[in-house]
Amino acid sequence: MHLTKNEEKILNGEKGEVMERLFRLLVRLGDIYDADKMIPVGSVQVAGVSYKSIGDPGTDFLEDMASNNARVKVLTYLNPAGMDLENWKELGFPEDFAKNQLRIMDAFKKMGIVVTSTCTPYLAGNLPRFREHIAWSESSAVSFSNSVIGARTNREGGPSALAAAICGVTPNYGLHIWENRQPSFKIKVDANLEFNSDFGALGWYVGKQVKNKIPYFSGINNANTDQLKALGAAMAASGAVALYHVEGLTPEADLVKAKGLETINVGKKELNETYIKLNTGKNPDIVIFGCPHASLREISQVAEKLKGKRVKKPVWICTSRMVKEAAERMGYNEIIAKAGGSVVADTCMVVSPIEKMGYKTTGVNSGKAANYLPGFCKQEVCFANLDDLVEGQL
Length: 394
Ligand code: F3S
Prior knowledge:
Distance between the termini: 60 Å
Oligomer: single chain
Bound molecules: FE3-S4 cluster
Helix content: 40-55%
């Protein structure tokens, strides 16, 4: 890989030990994937934030970096943490877990990272532009930024994202290169997609079929950004899909070569089968929306459904702190709280320790959450649309 004079200096330790260590990691990654050079990144999103995922070794590592003066060079956000960073007590998060989670946040803050924890940074003040190179980690955020925005990122691991944030560059390989953004499959959709969960079911099914490859959808005539984030998140979960194109909707769909591809047909039957497959439980003890983190529109939909009602069992909506504050101003949080629900910021159903909080069956409208809850949180899952899930808790 070609390195500039300045980069050689970093590698020789002239810019300090921390920079050398992290830059070395990026060079090794670049060598593995045959990158020709380093490219500057516009922003970074770091994963490995929840104490549940990184434990004591990860926390010690981050504290060590922070105390050794590691400081980020570009706008850097965080993936969801293991709890609501402000309301954790009220929501019942364990005290010792909270103590460690706050240590982690403190270390990130010292490094200059914006301590807002979300998998939808693009809804919370970190919006890349078309064709901008970025280094993001969380799989749904990677999918959305590549596909819906047309920015360029590989799916970074926690350490490589942190290294990109501190060095300001990433190796040029994979989805940073135009030739690698071409689709391998055409997905012909012939089904009525009404709810966000329909997009989640479609994504989950297609992810399983195309595994790791890039699909090109036709037949989706309309979809808002919430639905596209649901589609991408589910595909990322079931098939590690980091980029997709939708004819007429996503910015690179007109630019890529979509002729002569193997075609996969998806209709009502496949979607119904997916709903059945993702349902492993009945009668949820808790319903959690907001995977990926809810937009203001999604929170307003839940508020509308709960207005003047009272839930018998908990309903959470996970979102970013920024969106929660906007929802507060609109009065949505109050409506939801009056009905007995909670708008939960900074965390999500998968990275928070819900199994330790006594929940056994979780209702979700997200294909991604339905995919991970059984393994990560030992939950039975009820996968359904928002209307049915809210109805079931009343
Ligand atoms: Fe986000 Fe958690 Fe889902 S990180 S995409 S809400 S599993």
